[in-house]
Specification:
By secondary structure, this protein is of the alpha+beta class. Helix content is 31%, strand content 29%.
């Protein structure tokens, strides 16, 4: 496994700028570089062949939102009254071969999750999806001055009101992406991608949406979880 082709200082500056730009409502945590064996494939439905497993019942972190979801579920179990907002920056590894611009075998992801309980009438969704997406756009703007675009894909017609709330929170930077194919079956209700225009083209920086992970971890269909991930290495190359 070779070192990153991005200079240490450049990558560290992008990571620090993104973390420092997050609102204080998101608690920053430091995740372990190892996760319980099967976490990514069982919770996040990432194929086990893409994850580096160990001989001691663990696997190398491949997605920080999986680890954050596990921590959020523990906190929700212990205190179901409070909304849990967590953020981290984690160096992760994917086992599959990659070759091409802006593709890396190991890379840093800024992960954010918001976990809470269904409040009826999609109230949790309408409040917290715009909040998390706005936090991600703010993190990007701390490093890049180019135009941003949040591309929304509504997977369930009921979530049209959630998309409207996101448009109202981030005016002028939201576009519809009904033709998106990736993420269907992974996300529920609504998902998004975050792009920045730099060097004459649109560059994908982030991805996220609603997932049922805390419902499954806690055995409670009333649990809600919204996640987002931002590629710090891509951000550092802009």
């Amino acid at each position: 496994m070779a070192p990153s082709g991005i200079g240490f200082d450049r990558l560290r500056a992008a990571e620090s700028a993104a973390l420092d730009a997050l609102p204080p409502s998101f608690e920053k945590v430091t995740l372990s570089p190892l996760a319980p064996l099967g976490l990514h494939s069982v919770v996040g439905t990432v194929h086990q062949n893409k994850v580096v497993s160990t001989v001691r019942g663990t696997e190398v972190a491949a997605d920080p939102t999986n680890g954050l979801a596990l921590e959020a579920a523990i906190r929700r179990r212990d205190d179901a009254k409070n909304v849990v907002r967590l953020a981290t920056a984690q160096r992760v590894v994917r086992a599959q071969h990659v070759d091409g611009p802006a593709l890396f075998a190991h890379f840093t992801l800024l992960g954010l999750v918001t976990a809470g309980r269904d409040t009826g009438n999609l109230g949790f969704e309408r409040e917290h999806a715009p909040e998390l997406i706005r936090a991600m756009t703010t993190a990007v703007r701390a490093q890049v001055d180019g135009p941003l675009e949040v591309r929304l894909t509504v997977l369930d017609p009921r979530y049209t009101v959630v998309a409207d709330a996101i448009r109202a929170a981030i005016p002028g930077e939201v576009a519809d992406d009904p033709g998106r194919e990736s993420g269907r079956g992974y996300y529920t209700g609504l998902c998004f991608k975050l792009f920045c225009h730099a060097g004459g083209e649109w560059c994908e920086l982030g991805d996220g949406g609603f997932v049922p992970w805390t419902q499954e971890l806690l055995g409670n269909r009333k649990e809600r979880l919204f996640i987002g991930g931002l590629g710090v290495d891509r951000l550092a190359t802009l």
